[in-house]
Amino acid sequence: MTRPLRQYDERVYSLDGILVFGLLFVCTCAYFKKVPRLKTWLLSEKKGVWGVFYKAAVIGTRLHAAVAIACVVMAFYVLFIK
């Protein structure tokens, strides 16, 4: 017995989940930048795959007000609207 194709047409990733992951990633890397041992271990590379952590930390540090507002808005959305 076969099912209609619509039942298999579910989205695996949602946009709000990707946004939450991105915000948490940026916030976590910005925190890592404040911890000396983690900074030298994780944020020493500025290019390549490991450079993503450094770039996220720079975004979180320079745009800390915008990231904080985005976190509050996303928390409100996840808790009350979704």
TrEMBL record:
Q: What is this protein called?
A: Protein kish
The membrane-spanning stretches of this chain are: 12-33, 53-80
Q: What is the lineage of its organism?
A: Eukaryota, Metazoa, Chordata, Craniata, Vertebrata
Write the record's keywords in alphabetical order, separated by commas.
Golgi apparatus, Membrane, Signal, Transmembrane, Transmembrane helix
Q: What's one GO-annotated cellular component?
A: Golgi membrane
Chief place of localization: Golgi
Keyword hit for Zinc: no
Q: Please give the Pfam families that the UniProt record associates with this protein.
A: DUF1242 (PF06842)
Function, as annotated = Involved in the early part of the secretory pathway.
User: Where, subcellularly, is it found?
Assistant: Golgi apparatus membrane
Q: Does the keyword Mitochondrion apply?
A: no
UniProt record, GO biological process: constitutive secretory pathway
Membrane topology, as annotated:
Single-pass type I membrane protein
Q: Which family does it belong to?
A: Belongs to the KISH family.
